[in-house]
Amino acid sequence: MTENQHFTNPVSGILFSKVNPETEEKISKILSEFQLLRFYPFITLADAVEIAGNNHKSYLLLLTLNSSETNVFMPQDKQMITNQQLFGLAFLRKDYGKVYIKPETFSDKFIDLFARGDIDFEDDPVFSKKYYVVARDKHQLRQNMSISFRQVMKKFDDLEIEIQGNHLLVRKDMSENQLNASDIAVFLTEINNGEN
């Protein structure tokens, strides 16, 4: 694919354009900020496309993630595991601080009985029940996370999101990449509406 080539996703109808090498380098540097990727000792940006028409920059990323697995019975036997996964990256208008959002599980609810880490939104009990939200600065998050942000998130069941300042990284369950690409692109298009 050549630079500045545009194409449309047949499922979502969203227009994409290939990014240039300078933008890929900038994205790679930004990815190093995210704790979501800390478990992978070696990460490669395999491909990146910009989602055209958003108020702020948004990208669909294909990352090659490398990790090692140790055999329990033979600790000296390490095996490298490589997989590719789709992520979305958005440059938001607001600074949210450090935030982590994932689908809330029963164990999250149980732990929250003692630790009180989950941030609930009294004006949005459906969102609060669906997603587990933690932030370094709860006040900053509450001040900046709009109702429209939460409404967009409620449309999706399995998003895992990390926000570092005004950079948002999102991924979904890895089971179906074609649908994940469409869902992530739709999510980024709706979330990056200029309000967030």
Helix count, DSSP H or I runs of 4 or more residues: 6
**In percent, how much strand structure appears in the residues?**
25-35%
SSE succession? EEHEEEEHHEHHEEH
Number of domains: 1
Helical residues, percent? 25-40%
**Main sheet: strands, sense, barrel:** 9 strands, antiparallel
Question: N-to-C terminal Cα separation, in Å?
Answer: 32 Å
Largest sheet, order of strands side by side? 1-2-3-4-5-9-8-6-7
What is the number of E strands?
A: 9
Averaged pLDDT: 83
- Shape summary: globular
Q: Which class of secondary structure composition applies to the elements? A: alpha+beta
Uncertain stretches of 5 or more adjacent residues? none
Radius of gyration: 18 Å
Structure description:
The protein is an alpha+beta fold. The protein has helices at 21-31, 106-115, 125-130, 138-144, 147-154, 177-191; strands at 6-8, 15-18, 42-51, 58-70, 78-91, 98-103, 131-135, 160-164, 167-171. A nine-stranded antiparallel beta sheet has the order 1-2-3-4-5-9-8-6-7, sandwiched between helices. β1 and β2 (15-18) form a beta hairpin. 27% of the residues are buried.
